[in-house]
């Protein structure tokens, strides 16, 4: 990380590797969610109408919102992470079958593996994030005297840097691994289809020029050969 702030450019560059990072982590948190009465497919509340969290406790939600807003601060490129719906995305994923470990092998043994072997714990993703948030808050209280979400902006950046570098001493928990999972699911929420809760109003696809759902462009090849193809991005909801 840069000394002055969490580097958005590196964050965006890393997004291209998000799939690889997830494959080596807990799981890929893009399992389809059924629309709820409060949030039909294709509709997302405006920032002034926040969605209720379905699984995160108030303390956990405060941590997640603070973390995604630190990783994705509001600037000329996009709104903050929470205003882009990233916290809602994380909440939905952790409240889904994926969050409950629905597709995970959990029979053990769970020996400590090498970093390249990925996730090796018996915890479900939901349990993992609950334990990680609790450990992170315990460490920031010991180090800074406050829970993570109550820290000043510069201290949040410093705390995340310490986690990323493995310098944060979590009790009975791997701070670096937790930061990696937090960063991966934040990137997934930032760039996922809006139907999953993040990427509100397609703001992130518009930022990078990604056209969205259409999977084939055979009819565009001849017209756009050696030319840049520009099109308004489309969500799954646009085809529902």
Using only C-alpha atoms, the radius of gyration works out to 18 Å
Strand content: under 5%
Total strand count, please? 0
Q: State the helicity in percent bands.
A: 25-40%
Uncertain spans: 1-5, 15-43
Structural class: mainly alpha
User: Average pLDDT value?
Assistant: 81
Distance between the termini: 40 Å
Count of alpha/pi helices: 8
- Largest sheet descriptor: none
Shape: globular
Order of helices and strands: HHHHHHHH
Entry summary:
Helices cover 38% and strands 0% of the residues.
Notes on the protein architecture:
With 240 residues, the protein is an all-alpha fold. 38% of the residues lie in helices and 0% in strands. The chain has eight helices and no strands. The chain has helices at 8-15, 18-23, 58-71, 86-94, 125-144, 153-164, 175-191, 203-208. Helix 6 (153-164) crosses helix 7. The longest helix has 20 residues, at 125-144. It starts with 7 loop residues before the first helix and ends in a 32-residue tail after the last helix.
Secondary structure blueprint with pairings:
Blueprint: H1 8-15, H2 18-23, H3 58-71, H4 86-94, H5 125-144, H6 153-164, H7 175-191, H8 203-208
Helix pairs in contact: 1-7, 3-4, 3-6, 4-7, 6-7
Features:
240 residues, mainly alpha, 8 helices, globular
